[in-house]
Amino acid sequence: MDTVAGRTQSVGTIPSHKMPETTRLWRSHHSHNAHSEVHSAFVMGKSRVAPLKSVSIPRMELIAATMASRMDTFWKRELHMQLQPSVFWCDSTTVLKYIKNETSRFRTFVANRVSEILEVSQVSQWRYVNTTSNPADSASRGLCVDVFIKNITWLSGPEYLLHPEQDWPVNPDQSKLLPDDPEVKVSVLVNTVHCSEQEDATSRLINHFSSWTRLRKSVAWILRLKGLLRSLCKRKQVSPSKHQGPFTKQEAGMTKAHTLSGLLCMDELKNAEMTIIKFCQRARFPDELDKLQSGMCVSKNSSIFKLSSVLEDGIIRIGGRLSKAAMPEEAKHPIILAKDLHISSILLRYIHEEVGHGGRNYMLARLRQKFWVTGASTAIRSILSKCVVCHRLQAVPGSQQMADLPADRVCPDEAPFTWVGVDYFGPFEVKSRRSLVKRYGVIFTCLTIRAIHIEVASSLDTDSFIHALRRFIARRGQVQELRSDNGTNFIGAERELRQAIEGWNQGRINDMLLQKNIKWVFNPPTGSHHGGAWERFIRSVRKVFNSTVRSQNLDEEGFYTIVCEIESIINGRPLTKASSDPNDLEALTPNHLLLLKSSPSLPPGEFHKNDIYARRRWKQVQYMSDLFWKRWVQEYLTQLQERQKWCDKKRNFTVGDSPHCG
Questions:
Q1: In 3-state terms, the chain is what percent helix, strand and coil (to 5)?
Q2: Interval 255-308: pLDDT, tens
Q3: What is the pLDDT of residues 467-503, one digit of tens each?
């Protein structure tokens, strides 16, 4: 297959003609001169050697057509002149059918090349030329030199190129591709047919119910109606001598109303249950039932072979090994059911609710008092996983990885009690004259050095808290930020505290704090872990108080004294690990800094080791304070790196989750 094409310009626009052949590309050109004469001449040729691998003739023809389209693109890019659309001549009707195809899908080889051809040319540009009139055949079939020199068609192109377009060869009728063309993809239709087994009325009735109790009652009523209809039919079928006369419409109605108006009895429910089980066993174990009815053993391939099944009143039960055990007959020979039956699911759901949403072992023990479901553990696990009540009762609260410590926990060089957490604890009974009164402890925790300060409050009202806070600030210095629990965080025995704190006039307290430039931050509701820094100290205070006072009732003065001693004990606890080596430094405690604090505003300046021998006491204090903070950063702060809980990052709640709010 070849392509003949070319372009030159003398006057006006110039069309070019390309004739593809299997092994090379040949281009010719004709143009109109000043005398309106048409000239055609050879411009460019290109050929390719056929590959050693066997390639079909249509594919080689298509390769040559692809070469023609590439040469046309090259020619347009190199010539900077206005050109008319090219004309492609091809003597392969198969290639022309490929190019003009609009219905079939080709294999990859043909599809890629046809797509490339149509990207640079139109279908109307491709025309048919007979093999005898195709000059490109001279190169593909070979010629002797003397014959080739005399070949005018090779250099000037076919003679019809010099004639008007209406005289050019006519394209043959391009019929559709043959259905057995190897390059056309075979269309394979895959039809999916959903075949559902036709359920009978009884199966639809059983699958309709999702409750074991309602199913038994419904079947019991149906069986009662069935008995009524049978009795009516038998009465109609009796002999005329015994017949008392036909049923009147009124008598039939009275009989039906009397039969269907009464309540169900236990025997009817048991009969309904056995009827349901017989039907399901017949549907699920037909072969086993037939063999047991004929006195044979079930097949070894059966799922109930190891159960030594027996037939009793038309119901398959377990023969088992417990026939001599002191157990009820139903427990020794339970009814066999398959786990994939619908009644097995609703029966397990019924037992699960009956045992109060108990666990798998409890359900299994209750189930096997009467029934034996094959693969019961798996079925019970499936029931438990779908139980909404169990999910709500046993749900684990959502959590996320513990956040980094806030700045008020890790910033050194601030005065103690700059960042404070506050909480109430108590009450304690104190003797006042001849009566007992309640007193409450207000614990202030330094979030940085973990020191505490305890004030005594006479009540839980707003004024008492404000007085306690003012005494604390007067003795410990200015507070920058105050954190406390929300009133809804108090639970259980702290109900009195919760109700009193919820009744605080928070606006009034906030106004007082704003006057002293204190920011008050509430922990979120139900987020008591935000206040763990002071909740743990309340436990320590109670422990020391109970071990010291025991069951004694202190007076006011003794109570204040014991509170101060407890504060000193808690502040003397080590923040770092104590060492048994006498050469090591003393374990760091909050009192190392508290007992040296003289005022909330420390003097400015840099202090050195020599200042410990200075005559001015404030320099000695300041040096020891700096020493505390250095040890605090090096020995204590590094211990806070490890997360005690919530160590893993979890997925946040998203739309579509079903959280259970308790």
A1: 45, 15, 40
A2: 666 566 678 888 999 999 999 999 999 988 988 888 888 888 888 888 888 888
A3: 888 888 888 888 888 888 765 434 333 455 455 555 5
Write out the two tokens for 161: 């190129």
Compute the CA torsion angle 265, 269, 274, 278 (nearest 10 deg). 130
SS (H, E, C) 371-400: EEECCHHHHHHHHHHHCHHHHHHHCCCCCC
The H or E element spanning position 521 is: strand 519-522
| Angstrom distances, CA of residue 360 to CA of 338, 380, 419, 505 | 18, 6, 51, 52
β-strands 24-32, 38-47 pairing: antiparallel
Q: How far apart are CA 525 and CA 11, in angstroms?
A: 92
Report the alpha-carbon distance of residue 15 to residue 9 in Å, rounded: 9
**Poorest-pLDDT segment among 151-165, 449-463, 465-479:** 151-165
- Tokens 């420390």 appear where? 602
pTM of the model: 0.46
> What is the Cα–Cα distance from 418 to 402, expressed in whole angstroms?
24
Mode of pairing for the β-strands spanning 435-446 and 452-457: antiparallel
Nearest to 64 by CA among 48, 86, 41: 48
Place of tokens 């008007």: 164
| Cβ-Cβ contacts under 8 Å for 270 (sequence gap 6 or more) | none
- Which has the minimum average pLDDT: 60-69, 181-190, 529-538, 578-587? 578-587
Query: What tokens appear for 331 in the block?
Result: 């427990």
Closest to 378 in 3D by CA, of 316, 303, 279: 303
